[in-house]
Write the structure tokens for this entry.
Amino acid sequence: MNSNTHQQFETNWTVIWILFLSGCTIALHVGKFPAALPLIEKEFGLTLSQTGTLVSIYAILIAFGGLLSGMSVARVGYVWFALAGVALCMLGSLAGAFVTSVPMLMLTRATEGLGWVLGVVSIPVLMSTLASAKDRPVVMGLWGAFMGVGGAFILFASPYLHDIGGWRLAWALSAALSAIGVAAMALTCYKQRGNLAQLTNARQSPGLQDLWQKRAVAVFVCFLCYSFQYVCATSYLPTLLIQDSSMSLASASRWTALILIPNAIGNISAGWIINRGVKRSTILAVAALLTGIFSFVLFSVTDTSIRLSAAILMAAIGGIIPGTLFSTATLVASTAAGAGVVIGFMLTGTGFGQLLGPVLLTRVVEWSSHWYSGGLLCLGVGLLGAYFAFWLRDIPAVKAK
């Protein structure tokens, strides 16, 4: 998207941080679930298929609802979508704290998942619009860290919350924080209504023509490859640590939670690297290749220190990819209102990556009877991401300050 489609003003970082932290509250509802799953399984006597459904609800909604949400947001208005997204997460989590049946639990998870999709489609566009041209890559890199920041917070807090009030307390706290996020975002958007006017009006063209570009296909595939590698690594790292290093489940889970921190650092660093004058295609290609290499090491080497080092490096370097892609999406879109369509398309790639990753990795490992074959699969996916990154090479680098 051309920079001249944005108003020219200095970035109000207080506003950016309010929107970012409000957005982080939607990540709480993803991060709270893994630590609570054993407790929920025990309380409701879940079958394996029910557990799988609960785990995959978000990925299914992202895969099949991302583009639809991106198409709808220009019609409804970005501000309303952003508020609705955080509000739906709040309502789903609050209702989930009181559920007494598996179907109701699934319904509340689906409500949270829908809210997550709406929020991720709309909030970064608000932040991009309120950022100056020179700060926009940094702002988009910051947004890329929302999952790492929100997810890490609730993952580390969950054991203490469970000791005090069980898994339902984690749901209630997440709902309360999202309620604060809704209120803060509503007040901020009202005060910034003049700067956000171009995103508030309904019935704008969704900009579907942008999806026929090679650039749009590239950001779709790059995000798919990243999410494929990331979900495989984080999902099976605890299993590998328990199997090969004789770690307890608690210790393995803590190490996995720690990976979110370098991932968030990688997200935030993306904007800094872009502003140093490095081309986005180069950033994405190198990050995809290195993420594939470190994923291969993670699955292939049984030494605990090497495996954990590879996991940390994979998360940190891989974290550069979402931050760069969110920044790139605003350039792929031809209008400010159409940015949500491109982001929704990217999210569709994310959802399919999350769905395909665990399925293909487990099939390959079962077929070969060796975990290193899963590493080879992740390495291949990294090479695929690097190839499609070069489809973005016509996007010029930012002039280094």
Q: What stands out?
A: The mean pLDDT is 86. Residues 22 and 181 are 4 Å apart (CA to CA). The chain has one domain: 3-392.
